[in-house]
Design brief:
Blueprint lengths: L1 E8 L9 E8 L6 H12 L18 E4 L2 E4 L13 E5 L6 E3 L2 E2 L2 H9 L19 H7 L10 H5 L1 H5 L6 H11 L7 H8 L13 H5 L6 H19 L1
Parallel strand pairs: 1-5
Antiparallel strand pairs: 1-2, 3-4, 3-5, 6-7
Helix pairs in contact: 2-6, 6-7, 6-9
């Protein structure tokens, strides 16, 4: 069947504002949206810009708006949409557009780095590995599925209203280390995000969880951080 793709275009070298361009393509129900974008670029318009790498939902680089919803272009098939012959493709919201469907991810990764996304331990270095109980690992295991696609942050209404809010992706990474029994910086990690721009910026709207391509219960994980902060406050008082 023939499908129409209405794609957002913006080239700062020549455009003062964005516009939409229409393309037609013969598609099959099992075609990925990313496959269609590739064919448009290869066969019709080599100037079309977008990101992708693994094409299998692992790298998270091809997050974009497809018919008004944030998706990974490599995970969605033509048949996944009711309007299988009409698609509107737009860049990830919240972020500044670099060109067409490519957005500036630097602010996103700056916030990710801000929460210190690595294990911190002031204990003596063990002879082999730092041991961890399986139950502890299972508790934060959902957070390990995060591929840093920024879908949750782009969908979050708080991130759109408050540019200083860390956002669900950075807070989810913080959750991963706060609850890791091998990490000894729990206190300073909690203090770092115990702010209105940190975990209390989350208003539990569940939009982040709804769009996560990996099915991570992001909102629930952030709720666990809030609970731990409250428990720590009670203990100290």
């Amino acid at each position: 069947m023939k499908s129409t793709f209405i794609i957002y275009r913006f080239d700062p070298a020549v455009d003062s504002e964005g516009h939409y361009q229409e393309y037609s393509l013969e598609t099959a129900p099992t075609d990925k949206i990313l496959d269609c974008l590739n064919r448009i670029r290869w066969e019709q318009d080599p100037t079309l810009a977008y990101r992708f790498s693994c094409a299998h939902g692992i790298c998270g680089s091809d997050a974009m708006m497809i018919n008004g919803r944030i998706e990974l272009a490599c995970q969605k098939l033509i048949r996944d949409f009711k309007t299988a012959n009409n698609f509107v493709i737009e860049p990830l919201p919240l972020f500044n557009v670099v060109k067409d469907l490519v957005v500036d991810m630097n602010p996103f990764f700056e916030k990710h780095r801000h929460v210190r996304p690595y294990l911190i331990s002031d204990l003596d270095e063990p002879e082999r590995e730092r041991l961890q109980e399986a139950e502890n690992q299972r508790f934060f295991e959902p957070a390990l599925r995060c591929i840093l696609c920024a879908s949750c942050t782009a969908a979050c209404p708080i991130s759109r209203a408050n540019p200083d809010y860390l956002g669900p992706a950075a807070l989810l990474r913080s959750f991963r280390y706060i609850f890791d029994s091998r990490d000894t910086a729990t206190g300073s990690r909690l203090a770092q995000i115990d702010t209105d721009d940190g975990v209390w910026g989350c208003k539990t709207m569940w939009w982040c969880t709804d769009v996560c391509p990996k099915g991570i219960p992001v909102t629930k994980c952030l709720g666990q951080i809030k609970r731990l902060v409250r428990e720590k406050q009670k203990t100290e008082s």
